[in-house]
Every structure is written in structure tokens, then in C-alpha cells.
Amino acid sequence: MEIQPKECENCGISLSEGDKFCPMCKTPVEVSKGRLAYFKKVSRTRPGVLLFIGALIGIVVLASAIYVPQYTENWNNKGDDALNTRHFEEAVKYYSNALNIDPSSEDALNGLGDAYLNLISAQGNNYALPLSYYEKANKCNKTGNSTYALNKMGMIYLSIEDYDSAQKIFQRIIDQDQKSPLDLANAWYSKGVALKQLNDSKGAIDCFNKSIAISASEINSRPQRQKALLAMGETFSSENESKKAEQCYKEALDISVDCGNCKNACHNLIKNLQDAGRPEEAKKYDEKCFSSLT
Q: Taking the domain 69-140, which CATH number applies?
């Protein structure tokens, strides 16, 4: 089926049926065939319209690429400020605004998890909501393994006494390719805590040892190393291995930054020494540990 245009493509004058040339400008009249005739006519006679539409789409895409991350970051920054000043309900509002702009914002999801986690301490112990935000944040992470989100998830599982899920989460941090030594030391320590609660003392001690070995070479990780030594001492105590427990407690005290962090180690060591019939040594550590606190 042949379709003749109604207007000249060159000058726009009306054409009559059967015209082979434009009566005004003498431009040959092209006759199109088939159902694509209309689209061919549009593409030839209105390229400016198509160019305008393409340019408009490009501007919208470019504006989104520039301004969406900026607006998201602004709301996240407000959420961070509210979180740091303990205005948790305001933080929820700001992070929610960021998610409305970018539903895959990892920072906003982690922020909401932190805000709800803090609200829970005052309003109840339903950890399902913050846990769900950390899970989403982890999925939005480029690697699928966010150390921050995974650590928060692991700590929640420890809080609700789901120790098996906790130790699996901390193992995921351990298995990551990119992590800081301090994050790795903390993951081994936390996994050890979970295994200790699962009555796997051997596995727990192995985890604590790895945490201690990693943190020993890190300048800013004395508190982490001390925590692991204390936890290992407690594990040895539960296994009635008082000598090993005592060694752990003494090492924890020797690397103490301030005695406020080592109070539990002091109590445990003093008790061990008293139980072992060494009251003079117990008194020595009692004076060493607690004289500075009075």
C-alpha cells in the first residue's frame, strides 16, 4: 500500500493526489510504502522535536546523577548530627527522608538501624526493626558484606541470645577480603564470645587467641586485646584452669590503659588468688587496681 504525503517535505505546501513534484518548489514527492510510512514522515519532517526530547531526557538524567546523591547526603548528615546528640526520633525522620530519595542508601539504612537500636533501649527490646535495616544495608553494599552492618547484626544476635547466628555473622566478617586489623580482631573476639555461650570453650579460646595475636601489633588496640585476654581468662576459669586464667588476667592488667577498663580483670584475678590460698598476692593486686579509684 502506497501512501503519499499530504504536504511537501521541503516547503510545506499542500499536495494533491498523484502529484509527483511540488507545484511550488518542484521538489520530488516521495511516496512511502507500508505501515512505517507515518514514522518515516515524522522522522524526516520533525527532527528538531526528537532532538529536543532527547536533550530533555539527557538533562533529567544528568540532574538526577548530580543532585540525588547530594540531597541524600544532606539528609544523612542531619541524621548523623541528630544521632550524635541523642535525638533519635529526629534521626529516624532524617534518615527516612534520605531513603525516600535513594532507597539503596547504605548510610541511611545503617543510620536507621542505629537510631532504632538506641530507641529500643528506652522503649523495649524488639530488635527486629533495626536488624532488618542492617540486613538491607548489607545487601546494598557493593561487596555484599558491610563490616559495619554485619557487626551490628552480630551484636544484636548476641543480645537476643541467638549465639549460633551471631558466630556465623562474625565469621562472615573474618572471611571478608577487605577489613582493618582492628575489625578482624574484634570479629574473632565476638565470635569467641558466641562460642563460649555455646559451651565450645576450645573454639572460644582459639578465637580469643587470634584476636590477641592480631591486636598485639596494633598501637590503638590495647582495649581490644585486654577484652580478649579477660574473656579468655573467664573461659579458663569456667574450665577450672586457674593457672591459665591467672596468666590471662595478669597480662590484661599489664597492658591496661586505665584501670576503669580492667576492673573486671582485677576482681577475677583477686578472687583466683584468694581461692588459691595466696592472700598476700591478692592484697597486692587489690591495692594496685583499686587504690587509684578511691
A: 1.25.40.10
